Prior knowledge:
The structure holds 2 protein chains of 2 kinds.
Chain A: H1 2-16, H2 19-44, E1 49-50, E2 57-58, H3 59-76, H4 80-89, H5 92-98, H6 103-134, H7 143-167, H8 176-189, H9 201-208, H10 213-223, H11 229-264
Antiparallel strand pairs in A: 1-2
Helix pairs in contact in A: 1-6, 2-3, 2-6, 3-6, 3-10, 4-7, 7-10, 7-11, 10-11
Chain B: H1 3-18, H2 22-50, E1 52-53, E2 56-57, H3 58-92, H4 95-99, H5 105-112, H6 119-134, H7 142-168, H8 177-189, H9 200-209, H10 213-223, H11 240-265
Antiparallel strand pairs in B: 1-2
Helix pairs in contact in B: 2-6, 3-5, 3-6, 3-7, 3-10, 7-8, 7-10, 7-11
Amino acid sequence: MKLYLGFAKNSFQSNIAYKMNTILYTAMRLITTFIQISIWYALLGANGQTTSTAGTVTMKDMVTYTIVSAFISIIVQSDAIYIMENKIDHGEIGMDLIKPMNFKAYLFSMISGDMVYRIIFEVIPVLAVCIAVFGITPPSVQSLPFFFLSLFGGLLIYFELSYIFGITGFWYIQVWHFDRFLTSMTKLFAGMLIPFWFFPPILNTISLFLPFRSIFYTPICIFMGKATQGESVWLILQQFLWFAALCVLEKLLWKKGICKLVIQGG
Amino acid sequence: MNYAKMYGRYIVLTLKSRMEYRFSFLMDILIHIFIYVINYMSLWIIFEKFKSISGWGFYEVMFLYNLNLLSYGFCCMFFYSPMQGLERMVQRGDFDSILVRPIKPFWHLIFRGFNHVFLGHIILAAIIFYVSISHLQVSWNLFKALMFLLVIIGGVLIQTAILVLSGSLSFWFVRSRAAVNTTIYGLRAFLDYPITIYPGWIQVILTFIVPYAFVNFYPSELFLQKSGAMLFHPTLQYGTPVVGILLFALSMKVWDIGVQRYQSTGS
């Protein structure tokens, strides 16, 4: 355990060196959030509201949705795919596998270190500015524990997806294709920018069969009180089921990948 | 030297070498088509629900977005790699090897930097233009057709100019790329929707300071006859070709100054 904490700490420290990039990233995040809110403002009007499959939705609701989505976005994103691609490309993966530690746990702890850094230096400023400028509808106290649980669930799912795409690096050269694919699918089918209560039925149905919805839409809905306690429990259970299913897929792919690595020597 | 012929040869060579990895070549292009199809789907979802934004309908915003996509794709095909790679070349002194060639460094970089991944942008944009225009009531005449061509060329020139200006900054501030990229991508993101949805000061920035709005917003106002809700004078609708030429000329001048500076400081 101490070993993995050490990796997390390392990751955290090397991030401090990238202060400039952080400021820029935060600025970019603020711009995209502002643009998104402007879009909803134009669609709904300042005090406007509209009907949806989840009842009446107000402008305040959409502002809250956008800000919470930005929050999750910063938390969940990671370089896992590229770290793996790098290691496989440069053959480091061989060394990593010889070491007496779990590669996946090692990767996850690195990502976690990144995440803590981002929470301190990106999430807090972005949230502070957004809430000060736009305001947010605070969640109910009861939904908070469910929110954090579902946030963790979403994080696990996104990590697992990244990990699986990272494994394709054993066979596929242009792993960035998969990274872009993951980003794009998440943008649409996770309800990252547009909530599912605005979706036409057919796309909504499709999203139910994909894991992306659980990453953004589920935690945001719980935060906004759009799910009862019972529903929240069921949603979180779904998240962990998705995670389990993805883990099974990952183990299969990993076995195949290692086989190839051993036979071909990376 | 016949630059056009030379460039033709360069492109053929580059394409030949890239196409050795057929699958990879195709996937590079397809993934970008996929990304933007998803973006258009997002647009569709919004308009299925809301019907219009700031007086613009689905196919009108599609047309708007597409102008940005086409000009960006066309510009980047030739200028993205050279400008992105410039900072590193300057840092490592590799740029010196460009300076000793018998053709101007600008053109040499462009020749070597053809990037096929943006073909996806262009292919999709062509399709989307067909789709959006066939759903819009645009009264086509010779003037409009000519203007359409000029607007696309102007848009490409503006995108190129901003890219070249940002690349040129590497001659002065070596670690500037991240900051500049953020500014460019941040500003371009505003173009996805008609700029009338943003506060006035943003429209001012996008019109008079970094004139990105001339890439897609003002031309769209012209073609879709949307003079109603504009913040500034309607003449701006015709501004794209002029802004394009002026900005491009400025960017070439700044580039030249930058190269001279590089040579004189022996960076």
